[in-house]
Amino acid sequence: MTFQTFLSLLEPLRAEYPEAEFEVSEPAAPSGFWILSIDLPDGFSVEVEWKRPLGFGIAAGPNLAFGEGVHEVFANAPDAAARVAHLVATRTPTSADVPVSIAQLRKLRGRMQKEVAEALGISKSGLSQIETSAAMGTVQIDTLQKLIESLGGRLKISATFPDGMERRVSVGH
Amino acid sequence: MERSERFQLFLDELMSATAVASIEEAKLLLEQTLVRIENEHSGVPDNPDGWQNDGRMYPPKEDRRRSISNEVVAVYDSRGHRISFGHNGSIRIEIRRGLGKGTIVLDKPGQDGKTLP
């Protein structure tokens, strides 16, 4: 799978929005980022950057802030292309602060339930139950922590207060 | 400090810094200026190997260098912006996407007093 594969999936979008400007920026080195920029006449813009093994990183909106990271990450071209099409159609700005469910997070990391369950030493149905309980807000913190770590991440919990104070809360190691 | 304020502070300090004489020196000047400002004002720890937005601005790394670069000018694409470093140490930052597309927000001359053409 290459960036060209991703671009080919966007051909229907080009046809649907002939007024949009699609620009591809090529890296100087093969290991560098390929970047697709989509500009719409109303000022809305979508940027997609890709390199192995990171996947597809997306940011969208009328103002793209200097030096900031991507807002959303997708492991495969079809999911990234579908997301881009949705963003263009709805003119929805992306935000790294939008919360996602554990199941969505697992998919964003490109992981199947079966492999994550195996990494945790539980059954696939057991993982499904954890993901459901997380969505309902009844999952235990240490369970959540192990799940996030199995995805290669680190769980951070923070508390915010009306006076603007915000602090990370220490939980376990 | 809000990101927009930090970005303006970065532009101001970069513009007023002593001019340099090569692409490498210009890139280093930009990196050091941005990292110092973000360390002092962003409240976010530096994570140069990160990819997702954490609220902090990061200088462009080599994987953002564009194929149109050559010995005379090195071009890097950052979020919504294009950063060009001239062989004479000049630096240009321009908005390349969305609202403000085409706007040059910084045009710093090199040590020879010349900006990028």
Provide a descriptive summary of the structure in words.
Chain A is α+β, with helices and mostly antiparallel strands and 173 residues long. Chain A has helices at 3-9, 11-16, 77-90, 102-108, 113-120, 124-136, 141-150, and strands at residues 21-25, 34-39, 45-51, 55-61, 72-74, 157-160, 166-169. Chain A has two domains: 3-90; 102-169, 434 Repressor (Amino-terminal Domain). Chain A contains seven helices and seven strands, in the order ααβββββαααααββ. Chain A is globular, with a radius of gyration of 19 Å. The mean pLDDT of chain A is 87. The termini of chain B are far apart. Chain B has one domain. A four-stranded antiparallel beta sheet of chain B has the order 1-2-3-4. The mean pLDDT of chain B is 93. In chain B, a hairpin with a 4-residue loop joins strand 2 and strand 3.
Distance between the termini of chain A: 38 Å
- Give the strand content of chain A: 15-25%
Euclidean distance between termini CA atoms of chain B: 34 Å
Oligomeric composition of the shown chains: heterodimer
| Tally of individual domains of chain B | 1
